[in-house]
Amino acid sequence: MSHPIWSNVGSWLRRKTPLAEVLHSLPLFSELSASQLREVEHIVHLRTYSVGEVIFHAGDAGVAMFVILAGKVRIVLPGDSPEESRELAELEEGALFGELGLLDSSPRSAAAIAGNTVEAAAIARPDWMDLINRRPDIGVKMLLPLAQMVAVRLRIANQSNNGKKGDDE
Amino acid sequence: MMASASAETRERGWAPILLLGIVVATVLYLVRTSLPPLILAGIMAYLINPIIDISERRNIPRWASIAGVYLLIAGLIVLAFAYLVPLLVEQLQQLQQQLKGLWPRLPDLLRGAQEWVQEKIPASRNLVGEFQLDERAISTAQEWASGFLAQAPQFLTKALTNIVNVVSYFVMVPFIAFFLLRDGRSFKRGLIQLVPNRFFETTLAINSKIEEQVGRYLRGILLEASSIGVLSVIGLLVIGLDQAVIVGVVAGAANLVPYLGPIVGTLAGVLVAVSTGGSILGVLIVFASVQFIDNWVLQPVVMSRSVRLHPLLVFLAVIFGGTYGGLLGMVLAVPLTGAIVVTISTLREGLKPSADPMVRKVPD
Fold first, then answer.
1. ipTM
2. What's the pTM?
3. Which of A44, A54, A135, A137 would best serve as a mutation to test chain B binding (most B beta carbons within 10 A)?
């Protein structure tokens, strides 16, 4: 049986903050160890948005990815007038959005608006790139899940395109 | 529901940014006298940071690699004081003696130059007519020069009383730089925390572009200036100029300021050549060659992907920096102008006045 002091050290090393717990529950961060999650936490920006506040506009250059810690976020596709706009999804606590902002600065495809008071954790591309550069071990564990997320999106987009083509024909 | 959300969306405009810019500029102006150590610490942190990042990749804690780099720098400074500084002092003293010896010969040298010009270009004789350098003009020049030299001891004492200032810089700058290197990211995160939500992503974009470009410029210019210094010293040693090291060091250091470097280096070299009887043509050839290597090899390699500014803008920025910030202002003129240009261009991209998230943006 190990000495209690070692089990204390072990539990301290495995200890996670509430933010780390939320991050760890997401596929993008699930492979990271407690100490690696602490490194990620160091680059997280905590933001609070009031109801109706725009998190980002469609067409804006994406720089960051957001994780909802509390509240609801509406993802809206703008139209030619407010009435023609379409709500694509309502995301809740623990959801992740704007993840393509981690890869490049291409324009956001939809707007994100706070449905009520939203607390979000944002990770900026430059900070993330810097982290990957400094800690490739973290980069390796995050890049594969991110690629998988993008692959799923691509597949869904392809299917919906094929569906549309089928409708046209 | 959507209409109410869009109604609550705030207007995104230039006014708050302009106001913030004015506030920041005013605060910086008010604390300008205490800024130099902070700026120097910032530059030091920028220059060292890549080394610290590389060691972090090898799982060395930041504080340990910072301590290692500091020890290395301290060692280099000790070496410089042991070898380079005595050499520079010796060469300076020699130069002073030679310049003193130059004064009595000045009338002959000037007359010689006049005769040489009149011999080579006979037309110039008609141009200046019977004008001759008279004794009075020469003695006025000598008085002016000796008056200048007489002030030198006073200048030196003043510089020595400033040594307290220099020592405090030697302590303060690395101290501040240590914390910038270790906790710089937390400081940055704390500052970004203060930014309103609607400017959040734009601020992130501006910050990363400035960091990238300014860091690249500072590291590049330091590498360029050191290379020019070394090349000049080698060239001047080859032509056998007496104070090759000091002239080379001056030329290298002056290259931190755009446009000023080649002029200062060449002038210093020519002055030394005249006073020691060295080859003026040799000095000119050395500096022309160094300039050639700088323009065709160093600058394209070192400064590529760094901020691109119009030469006129660089020139004006250097003059402005020199007027308001002295030597440090001249060195920092280009990176600061680059930062301002990057900020304005990113703001222009990020702050299109389409405020309604429900309405599709009309392409420009």
1. 0.80
2. 0.70
3. A54
